[in-house]
Design goal:
82% of the residues lie in helices and 0% in strands. It is mainly α. The chain has one domain. α2 packs antiparallel against α4 and α3 runs antiparallel to α4. The chain is rod-shaped, with a radius of gyration of 29 Å.
Length: 116
């Protein structure tokens, strides 16, 4: 009897084990699609903001050396705008880094969960 069970176990086709749940994977991809879509061109948006900040600063410098009577007020406003754009670019960089990290972390955790 024992030898029969042993031989049966040796020649039996093994189970393939747990496989990914494709419905869960498709649902995950669908739920992250808008987030991934809107964060795709985040790097380009940050670059555009940085370029705009430099252009605003440059405009402020041009106004500073002009003979306009209200130049100091305009320059102060342009400098504030340039600083705001620089701060916004830094915060967007942090935001998109966090979003990408969260997506990667969730997907790696979900891959492990989908196998069971």
């Amino acid at each position: 009897m024992v030898s029969y069970l042993l031989l049966k176990g040796l020649f039996q086709i093994p189970d393939t084990g747990p496989g990914p749940d494709l419905i869960k994977v498709a649902g995950l991809a669908r739920s992250f699609e808008p987030l991934i879509h809107y964060s795709e061109n985040g790097v380009q948006q940050i670059g555009d903001l940085q370029e705009t900040g430099v252009a605003v600063w440059d405009l402020g410098e041009s106004v500073r050396f002009s003979n306009m009577t209200s130049a100091p007020v305009i320059v102060r406003e342009l400098d504030d705008l340039s600083e705001s754009l620089k701060t916004l670019a830094i915060e967007l960089t942090r935001f998109f880094a966090n979003v990408d990290g969260d997506i990667d972390r969730y997907c790696s955790l979900s891959r492990e969960c989908f196998l069971y």
